[in-house]
Structure formats: C-alpha cells, structure tokens
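Appendix B. Raw example, untouched.
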Amino acid sequence: MSQIVEEAKKRRAAVFSSSKKRPSHSGIDRDPAVISAHLRRNRLPARFLLPGEQNTRNASDREDKMKDAWDKLKDLQEHPELAGTPGYEPETLREEGDPIPWFLLLMKQPHFAPPRSWWFELYNRCDLPWARLLFEQPQFEEYCHWEALSRLELVKLSFLAPEIFRRNFPQGRRHDLYAFLTPLELKGLLSDVPQAAEELDMEEVGEKIGPDGWLFVLAYQPQLEKYFDWPTVEKRPSNYWECLLRRQPQFADHCDFSLLGRWQIVRILTKHPQLADRCDLSRLTPDDRKKLEEKGIVI
C-alpha cells in the first residue's frame, strides 16, 4: 500500500467524524469560466506599471494560462489524439492547469495519468471530485488524500463507490455526516447523486436549500421533481430559472417569464428559441438581438 494512503490512515477517524465546514466544489465541470476573468487587465509594458502592479499582472497571466489549459484539457476529453500537438503538451498542461479539469479528463481518458509527484502535491486540496473519479476509474484509489476529502465527497463516495468507501472507512456511516451538510453541499449531493434522496429527509432538505436550491437541483436531476412543491417558486424571481430552463425546458409552464431579467431571456432563447413566445421581447436591446442573430436565431 502506498505511503500516501498509509499516512492518511492515521487521520481517517478524525476526518470522518469532524463537523468542521469544508468547501465543496459542486458543478465543477458546469461553469469553467469562474476560474478566469476577474484578474484580466489591459496589457501594458512593465515600465508603465505602478508600484505593486507587477504582481497583479503576473497573477493575471497565470489566470489566463489556467483558463487556456482548462479549455485544452476539456478538448482532450473528446479528442485525446490532440495530446502532444502544439499547445497540448501534457507536461505543460499539468504545470499551468488546475487539478479539477485534470480529474475530469482522467474520468474519460485514464491513460493521461500524471506521475506520482503530481498527485502528492494535491494533499491540501479539499475541493477535488474524488468520488466521481474513483467511481469512473477506481485504479486511482492509491493516490487519494483521504484526510483532505470534504464531507460531501465522502457521502458521494459512499454512494458511487461503496466498496472503496468501506475499505477505507470500515466503521464509517454516511448517515453520521448528513446532519453536517451545508445547503451548498446538499445541492451538490443531490445534483450528482440523486439516489441520496431515498435516504434523506427531503422535507428538511427542501427547507435548507430553499426554492433557488431546488431549481438548481432540478436542472440536473429533473426526476426529483416528485419531492418539490412548484407553487413555492411559480411567482418568484430567481437567477436559477435560466439554469433550469436551459437544461430542462419542459418546466417552462412553471415559470413566470415576466419576472426574468433581460440577460436570462437571452441565454434561455440561445438554447431554446421555441420559448420566444413566452418572453417579453420588447425588453431586448439591439445588442441582445444581434447576439441571438449571430447564433442563427431571428426573433
């Protein structure tokens, strides 16, 4: 057994019973753009930078490289033959890319497995989708830093890869962790592992995650509709309507389109132009219509 797992065994009991809140990373492959943008600046020669700006510029460059690496790793999921071509060198992508898109790649293309040293450097990352990776590719179990797994990942693992869960936590029960899951973690659990609804008190869960949380969950798991009371959201504005209707347009009858923001209307119509007759199109600006036309949608 690897040194990594031996080291982790010493701390497993404390990890499993801990109620300390740890960050989760639900929906990681759903909005990769969150890793970029906020540090981007206009490029100027270094001599024109104010004191202290160089560090910001360096951070901006790193963010740009990370976003580019994310996109290329996503490409490799479907086109592994690109590996080794200019810009798609695995070693460079390991240096510049975040581990999260690497995990997503390994779920589909395990032959891109990085060297052991890369895995060892993940010891302090508690936001990685280990449960999904081990479900798809259990051979990576030896590299898992068990002490860094969040509560949410432990619960997901117990559903997705129960043998691995029992092997590493023989005395652990996922029920002991339910009470400590935050609303964000509950949304992540149900959106990734819908079968958890059979064990959870869904009335209590609904109170915790609220109407917005339900719209998010239903966007990814529409079959959980049976646990949801639609009247709680039918006359209520929410940023999550766009998330839901882009993925599940069959729920359009439950949405009051007059409450949607302009940007929500544009994003929904980009994916489902057949919903145009439900929207107040007079609110769209010329730029909005131009964006839709560029995608072949004429309103």
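End of appendix B.
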